[in-house]
Specification:
CATH class of the largest domain: Alpha Beta
Structural class: alpha+beta
Distance between the termini: 26 Å
Subcellular location: Membrane
Membrane topology: Single-pass membrane protein
CATH topology of the largest domain: Uridine Diphospho-n-acetylenolpyruvylglucosamine Reductase, domain 3
Radius of gyration: 23 Å
InterPro entries: Diminuto-like, FAD-bd_PCMH, FAD-bd_PCMH-like_sf, FAD-bd_PCMH_sub2, Oxid_FAD_bind_N
Strand content: 15-25%
Shape: globular
Organism: Zea mays (Maize)
Largest sheet: 7 strands, antiparallel
GO molecular function, one term: Delta24-sterol reductase activity
């Protein structure tokens, strides 16, 4: 048997025209994408400032008026001739890399573009009421000066509340608070029949409350959410700890960094993430909130990582491999968005010289390029190239299986760096689409509690080693094997990613029972697309569209033996 640590041997790949289009794409990015991105970011910033100047009462009034426009639009739909319902957002605007192929077929659009306001910051209830297009940069700009933040703040500025609730969201605090959707207190939803309901975990719409996460907007339109706030301090005291050894040893050091074996809660940090740079090297980062008085004490180092000319964060963290463990203080908001400028490490592929000092100093203030513009300017050939020669996937795996996951990725894809971020997966009153392993609470594994199993997001974002060496690589086959590994190991794949799952395997990975219950109860069947239909790769055939509209497709539940 081959060594599990050795990547597969592949043949050399002959270069074609699209290889050169990708190689020199930086020209388009510098002269077109970056300037337009900057103008868009500035325009959005002005819109956010204008919204913030309005009174809460006025913002709420506008919100109510916009909700009624959504209701009116839904009631205009003729089920006999109009397509299934979805938002009017352009296919390329989504941050995720999945192609929005469902919008290339017949559909009925509802415009939600006005829902981008922070409606209220309630300091007494410690809740932020926001509309679905509010993004992470916008909300941290409003809350951090108050020494408040969402319990889970996804790293990239552009990620929206609606996407993080309907889909998937995580951050370095998720080992304490769970996924982004776990921090939601209430949701305002427009149902298929035009009813507007407020769903909480303990009211008459509690089933809808638990059904919305991971549903991809296929149960109704989320038009506002109330989300948990926590008190914070001005700085993050961050400790960088280098780890060297095999992948299993790196995985164990990662687990030990935030889940002490003696169970001492005092040793649990406020934030944690890991980066695996090679099959034998990684850096673990643990953070605790710190006051400005502490940060500015003599001898403490403050690092404002948000400045445009600063080294990209993942490369800065990598220096711990040579310099050893070190500690520094980072302004909290800058820490939250530490991966934004370089889009984790994808920026290195988009702009190969973007990490050089001369570029950072002269043009770094233009970063990052807007993901939607990158998608809008790539064309069909480049889009297909990325599907075949690039990996952007997240693997949500139980903590005790992280070492196995790292070895699988090394063998099948050889992608580095890898991102590690832990999160609790709660045992809920109902069995939702994602759920902990049955009986986990009796195993007493590291990081687990009686009410939640500790999982980890293994982020796989970059060109595989084979592609970088000019060898053949079949991205579709690699993703298919990754998905089968996830199914076999009670693990999950967020739906933003390109998927090769067929419908049967999709429902082997996710549990459909509660989701289908909500689809039937709240009239989504035949009005909103199913989550598989919406996430499925490839253009929809007319037959698929007609079947989905008629709601005659049967749910593909997993076989009993699966």
């Amino acid at each position: 048997m081959a060594d599990v640590h050795e990547p597969l041997v592949r043949r050399k790949r002959k270069k074609v025209l699209v290889d050169y289009l990708v190689k020199f794409r930086w020209i388009l990015v510098i002269f077109v994408v970056l300037p337009i991105s900057t103008l868009i970011y500035f325009n959005i910033f002005l819109g956010d400032m204008w919204s913030a100047m309005k009174s809460e009462k006025k913002r709420q009034k506008q919100h109510d008026e916009n909700v009624q426009k959504v209701v009116k639009r839904l009631k205009q739909r003729n089920p006999k001739k109009d397509g299934l319902v979805c938002t009017a957002r352009k296919p390329w605007i989504a941050v995720g890399m999945r192609n929005v192929d469902y919008k290339r077929a017949r559909h009925f659009e509802v415009d939600l573009s006005s829902f981008r306001n922070i409606l209220e910051i309630d300091k007494e209830r410690m809740v932020a009421k926001v509309e679905p297009l509010v993004n992470m940069g916008q909300i941290t700009r409003a809350t951090c000066p108050m020494n408040l933040a969402l319990a889970v703040v996804a790293e990239l500025d552009d990620l929206t509340v609606g996407g993080l609730i309907n889909g998937y969201g995580i951050e370095g605090s998720s080992h304490l608070y769970g996924l982004f959707s776990d921090t939601v207190v209430a949701m305002e939803v427009v149902l298929a029949d035009g009813r507007v309901v407020r769903a909480t975990k303990d009211n008459e719409y509690s089933d809808l409350f638990y059904g919305i996460p991971w549903s991809q907007g296929t149960l109704g339109f989320l038009v506002s959410a109330e989300i948990k706030l926590i008190p914070i301090k001005e700085y993050m005291k961050l400790t960088y700890t280098p780890v060297k050894g095999g992948l299993k040893e790196i995985a164990q050091a990662y687990a030990d960094s935030f889940a002490p074996r003696d169970g001492d809660p005092a040793k649990v940090p406020d934030f944690v993430e890991g980066m695996v740079y090679t099959e034998s090297e990684g850096v673990m980062m643990t953070g605790v909130y710190a006051s400005k008085e502490e940060a500015k004490k003599k001898g403490n180092k403050i690092n404002c990582v948000g400045w445009w000319f600063k080294p990209w964060f993942y490369q800065h963290a990598q220096t711990a491999l040579n310099r050893g463990e070190f500690v520094e203080y980072i302004p909290t908001r800058e820490y939250y968005h530490r991966h934004t400028r370089c889009l984790y490490w994808e920026g290195k592929l988009i702009l190969p010289f973007g990490d050089q000092f001369w570029f950072r100093f002269l043009l770094g203030w233009l970063m990052p390029p807007k993901v939607s513009l990158l998608k809008a300017t790539q064309g069909e050939a480049i889009r297909n190239y990325y599907h075949d020669n690039h990996v952007i996937q997240d693997m949500l795996v139980p903590l005790y299986k992280v070492g196995d996951a790292l070895e699988f990725v090394h063998r099948e894809m050889e992608v580095y760096p890898l991102w590690l971020c832990p999160h609790r997966l709660y045992k809920l009153p109902v069995k939702t689409m994602v759920y902990p392993e049955p009986g986990f609470e009796h195993q007493h594994r590291q990081g687990d509690a009686s009410y939640a199993q500790m999982f980890t997001d293994v982020g796989v974002y970059y060109a595989p080693g084979a592609v970088l060496r000019g060898e053949e690589f079949n991205g579709a086959e690699a993703v298919h094997r990754l998905e089968q590994w996830l199914i076999e190991n009670h693990s999950y794949q967020p739906q933003y990613a390109v998927s090769e799952l067929n419908e049967k395997d999709s429902w082997r990975m996710f549990d459909a029972s509660h989701y289908e219950h909500c689809r039937q109860k709240y009239g989504a069947v035949g009005t909103f697309m199913s989550v598989y239909y919406k996430s499925k790769k490839g253009r929809k055939t007319e037959k698929e569209v007609q079947e989905a509209e008629a709601a005659i497709l049967e749910p593909a539940y997993a076989d009993e033996e699966a």
